[in-house]
C-alpha cells in the first residue's frame, strides 16, 4: 500500500523547503539572472561605468571567427569525452563484475581517480606527455612518434580528452558496476544454459537492462564535458596552442577575466547555458525513447 505523509498545517512543507529554495535562489538563479543582464550591457574593465548595449554583444559574438571555431572544438571534445568515458567505464565495469578474487582491490583502484581535482588531473597528464620531461612522450619519441602538446594542436586536444576521460572514468564505473550487480543472476545463468556465450549474454541481456544507467551517464557526461573540464584545460594547455583546445566554457573565462570583456563573456555564458539546456532536452526527447525501464 502507498503511504503518504500528511502535514497538519499548510505552511510547514513550505517552511521545510525554504532553506534549499534560498540556497538555489542565491547561488544559482541570482547569478544566472545577473549574467543574463550583463550580456545586454557594456562595462569597462573595473565595472565603474555601465552602458546598455542591447544585442550588440551577441552580434559581436557571432561575427567573431574564434568564437565560432570554439563551437567546433567543443563539439569534438564533448563527443570524444562522452563516448570514450562511457565505453571504457562500461568495459572496465563488465570485467570487474566478473572478477571473483580481489574484487574490492580492483574496484578501489578504479575509483581513486574520482578523488583527484580536475586541475591536478590536468597537471599529471601534462607531466606524462610533456615533450621535454614527459615519460610517455619520451617513449613515443624513441618509437619515432614525436609528441608535444604545447606546440601541436592535435596532440593538445588528445591530451585534454585523455585527462578528462580518466577523471570521469570512476564516476561512470560506479554506476555501471551498480547496474550490473542489480541484474538478476538467474537471467545470466538461464542464457548460459541455453548456450549463449559471454558476448551474446552481454549484448542481449545485460546491456539492454543497463540502458537507464547508460542514458543517465550520457546526460551527465555531456554536461561534464561542457563545464567541469575547465580545470583540466586551464592546467594542461590554457586553451592552446593558439585556440585549439579553447572550448566554450574556457573562452567564457578567458574573455571575461583575461580580456576583461565582461559583456561579451556574459553573452557567451548565456549562449552556453541555452546550448546545454537544448542538448539535455533533445536527449530526453529522443534518446530516452530507446531506454527500457
UniProtKB/TrEMBL annotation:
Membrane spanning residue stretches: 12-30, 75-96, 108-141, 156-178, 209-227, 266-287
Topology term for the membrane: Multi-pass membrane protein
GO cellular component, one term: plasma membrane
BP GO annotations: transmembrane transport
CDD domains for this protein: TM_PBP2
Domain of life: Bacteria
Keywords: Cell inner membrane, Cell membrane, Membrane, Transmembrane, Transmembrane helix, Transport
UniProt xrefs under Pfam families: BPD_transp_1
Subcellular localization, as worded in the UniProt entry: Cell inner membrane; Cell membrane
ABC transmembrane type-1 domain boundaries: 71-283
Record family assignment: Belongs to the binding-protein-dependent transport system permease family.
Subunit architecture: The complex is composed of two ATP-binding proteins (UgpC), two transmembrane proteins (UgpA and UgpE) and a solute-binding protein (UgpB).
NCBIfam families per record: PRK10561.1 (NF007852)
The name this protein goes by in its record: sn-glycerol-3-phosphate transport system permease protein UgpA
Species in which this protein is naturally found: Caenimonas aquaedulcis
Underlying gene: ugpA
Amino acid at each position: 500500500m502507498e503511504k503518504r505523509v500528511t502535514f497538519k498545517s499548510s505552511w510547514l512543507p513550505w517552511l521545510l523547503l525554504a532553506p534549499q529554495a534560498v540556497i538555489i535562489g542565491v547561488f544559482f538563479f541570482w547569478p544566472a539572472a545577473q549574467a543574463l543582464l550583463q550580456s545586454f550591457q557594456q562595462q569597462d574593465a573595473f565595472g565603474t561605468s555601465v552602458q546598455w548595449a542591447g544585442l550588440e554583444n551577441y552580434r559581436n559574438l557571432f561575427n567573431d571567427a574564434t568564437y565560432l571555431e570554439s563551437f567546433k572544438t567543443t563539439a569534438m571534445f564533448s563527443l570524444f569525452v562522452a563516448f570514450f568515458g562511457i565505453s571504457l567505464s562500461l568495459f572496465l565495469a563488465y570485467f570487474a563484475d566478473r572478477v571473483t578474487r580481489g574484487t574490492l582491490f580492483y574496484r578501489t583502484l578504479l575509483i581513486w581517480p574520482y578523488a583527484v581535482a580536475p586541475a591536478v588531473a590536468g597537471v599529471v597528464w601534462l607531466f606524462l606527455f610533456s615533450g621535454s620531461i614527459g615519460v610517455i612522450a619520451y617513449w613515443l619519441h624513441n618509437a619515432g612518434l614525436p609528441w608535444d602538446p604545447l606546440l601541436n594542436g592535435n596532440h593538445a586536444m588528445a591530451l585534454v580528452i585523455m585527462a578528462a576521460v580518466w577523471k570521469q572514468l570512476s564516476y561512470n564505473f560506479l554506476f555501471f558496476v551498480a547496474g550490473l550487480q542489480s541484474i538478476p543472476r538467474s537471467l545470466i545463468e538461464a542464457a548460459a544454459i541455453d548456450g549463449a556465450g559471454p558476448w551474446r549474454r552481454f549484448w542481449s541481456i545485460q546491456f539492454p537492462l543497463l540502458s537507464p544507467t547508460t542514458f543517465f551517464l550520457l546526460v551527465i557526461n555531456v554536461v561534464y564535458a561542457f563545464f567541469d573540464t575547465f580545470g583540466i584545460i586551464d592546467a594542461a594547455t590554457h586553451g592552446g596552442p593558439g585556440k585549439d583546445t579553447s572550448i566554450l566554457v574556457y573562452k567564457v573565462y578567458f574573455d571575461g577575466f583575461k580580456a576583461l570583456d565582461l559583456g561579451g563573456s556574459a553573452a557567451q555564458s548565456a549562449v552556453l547555458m541555452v546550448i546545454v539546456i537544448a542538448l539535455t532536452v533533445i536527449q530526453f526527447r529522443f534518446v530516452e525513447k530507446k531506454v527500457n525501464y
